[in-house]
């Protein structure tokens, strides 16, 4: 039995409200319309009304949407009007764990592909900044992330741009960026810190780089020990230029609003 147009509209609204799962859809159809669909018929129905089976996107639970919109607008204006000797970078910290991440790929039907794993107890502390226009990367590794390591990265950034008059660094609100040590460095530096609105990782362009890094280094890749993992990770950033076209594609465009 096929659903009527009214039934389809009712079902679309029900799915739109967050009832993603096929079994829930099966139950809804049976209880609401008295129609019993097989699993394959439910899948066909969901495809027919424009749905695709995929994971929802994780976003912060309580962002300030207005603040994000204002920040994005001000950023676009600043980028268009800034002077050539002014650089803009996005900064963040990532802690990749030494463990294999399984990702979807083409495997012959009826076969299984085994993927070695590690304990996942060891991780790296990588602090990185990426140029918003040239995609040049400045990276340091540290035993821990604190105000000392923050100053070390800011110093490395300043050295990487000796001809720049001003360096604007867009970053999150981690408390060590507000420390006395960082404030003292900023006072005698050409670096200026620009803080993102709270709960706004979507506005930080470097998040796109982290995603690309995971794709190249973590997904479906086994590193026998922490040293091999560290070498692969550091080499990725040292040889970032060979991925320039791919990085340009993911970095290009406006800031992403929720």
Indicate the CATH class of the largest domain: Alpha Beta
CATH superfamily of the largest domain: Ribonuclease H-like superfamily/Ribonuclease H
Strand segment tally: 5
- What is the overall pLDDT average? 86
Category by helix and strand content? alpha/beta
Q: Based on CA inertia axes, which overall geometry fits?
A: globular
Stated plainly, the CATH topology of the largest domain is called: Nucleotidyltransferase, domain 5
The amount of beta strand, in percent, is: 5-15%
So how many helices?
Answer: 9
Any overview of this molecule?
A hairpin with a 5-residue loop joins strand 2 and strand 3. Helix 2 (22-33) crosses helix 3 (39-48) and helix 5 runs parallel beside helix 6. Strands 3-2-1-4-5 form a 5-stranded mixed sheet, with helices on both faces. With 258 residues, it is an alpha/beta fold. Helices cover 41% and strands 12% of the residues. It folds into 2 domains: 5-48; 65-251, Ribonuclease H-like superfamily/Ribonuclease H (Nucleotidyltransferase, domain 5, 2-Layer Sandwich). It is built from 9 helices and 5 strands. The mean pLDDT is 86.
């Amino acid at each position: 039995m096929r659903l009527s147009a009214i039934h389809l509209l009712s079902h679309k609204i029900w799915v739109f409200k967050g009832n993603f799962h096929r079994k829930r859809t099966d139950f809804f159809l049976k209880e609401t319309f008295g129609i019993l669909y097989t699993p394959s018929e439910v899948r066909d129905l969901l495809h027919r009304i424009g749905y695709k089976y995929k994971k929802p996107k994780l976003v912060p639970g309580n962002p300030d949407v207005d603040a994000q919109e204002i920040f994005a607008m001000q950023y676009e204006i600043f980028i268009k009007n800034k002077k050539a000797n002014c650089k803009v970078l996005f900064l963040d910290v990532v802690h990749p764990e030494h463990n294999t991440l399984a990702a979807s790929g083409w495997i012959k039907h009826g076969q299984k592909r085994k993927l070695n794993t590690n304990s996942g107890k060891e991780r790296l502390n990588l602090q990185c900044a990426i140029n918003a226009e040239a995609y040049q990367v400045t990276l340091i590794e540290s035993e821990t992330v604190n105000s000392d390591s923050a100053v070390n990265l800011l110093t490395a950034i300043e050295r990487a741009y000796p001809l720049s008059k001003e360096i604007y660094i867009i970053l999150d609100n981690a408390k060590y960026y507000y420390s006395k040590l960082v404030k003292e460095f900023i006072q005698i530096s050409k670096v200026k810190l620009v803080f993102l609105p709270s709960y706004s990782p979507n506005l930080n362009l470097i998040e796109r780089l982290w995603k690309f890094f995971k794709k190249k280094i973590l997904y479906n890749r086994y590193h026998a020990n922490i040293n091999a993992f560290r070498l692969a990770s550091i080499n990725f950033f040292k040889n970032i230029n060979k991925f320039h076209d791919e990085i340009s594609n993911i970095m290009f465009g406006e800031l992403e609003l929720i």
